[in-house]
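Is flavin mononucleotide placement plausible here? Inputs below.
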Amino acid sequence: MKVLALTAGRKNGNGEILAKEALMRVEELGAEVKMINLHDYRITPCSGCESCTVKFTQKGEAPECVYRGKDDMELIMKEWLGADGIISVVPAYSFMPAGIYRVFCDRHLAYEPNFHKQVGNPDYFRHRVGAIIGNGGSTRSWMSLTLECINITLLTQDIKVVDQMMVNRAPRPGQILMDDGALARARQLGENVVKGIQNYDSVGFLGDENLGWCPVCRSNVLSLGQPHWNEEGFAIECPVCHCGGDIEKDENGKWKFVIQEDGCRKSMLDGSGARDHFFEIQETMRKYFQNQEQITEKKKKYADYRPASIER
Ligand SMILES: Cc1cc2nc3c(=O)[nH]c(=O)nc-3n(C[C@H](O)[C@H](O)[C@H](O)COP(=O)(O)O)c2cc1C
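Reply from A.M.:
I modeled the complex. Tokens:
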């Protein structure tokens, strides 16, 4: 049993301390552990070439990222894809997960398990569980998209997220050491990852049920529904797991998000959402290739127009 903790904060900072607490418990329970900090690696930002999605959806083949072998991404992904458990620990920067983590996750597109499964790549047919920690200097109001964004990055990687934890009000490195409750909770999170690996088929969410609005993924953010590419969608949708329904008042007059009967038909938790998106990309890109000549012609006007830029 292998568990990888991936951190994105300062060296010896609060995130690393929380990750280590979780890993110490994981190790006590008999698993092999590794920890990396993204600051120690070279990761080229995704160029947006889309050669991976073009190959997936237009050719039905498993792609390789154009940067493969040119930076440290492959090294990290080998561990990430080979682990039974992943713990992502990321600090809040401007309400969101720190950019360095986002740069790493943008590169996941070429490694999307559900897209690889769609083109029959057997390397991606394996079970993984995960847990996430978002740490910050403030309260949830200033970390409002942090857990939600980190959660999305594991769900798109086909990882079953069994626990989520938010750590507030620890701005300076090591300040988390004044919060015994957070350290104990991190150990519990490590234990929950091991439980999840041992009981993959039956395990549900082991964290705080009241973490957020969504009863499926515990996101604390909801979005107004909009039509989907191939159907109407939902009145209200969870932007993380894509389950949908409406908000209703319970018997105590408290608002709750109620998932409608078929509201998980595009869920990010069981691969159906990713599969649906695969076909969406397939269709929208096909329209591009059908009209490529016309688009190339129309693009000339914009290529020829060169507004002043900033001299370097
Ligand atoms: C550029 C920057 C932006 C930040 N933005 C937020 C924020 O929006 N919300 C918050 O709660 N903390 C914010 N913080 C505080 C960090 O989340 C906090 O220092 C955290 O403990 C860093 O984790 P680390 O010790 O693992 O590096 C920010 C820090 C930096 C450097």
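Short version: The first helix runs from residue 14 to 28.
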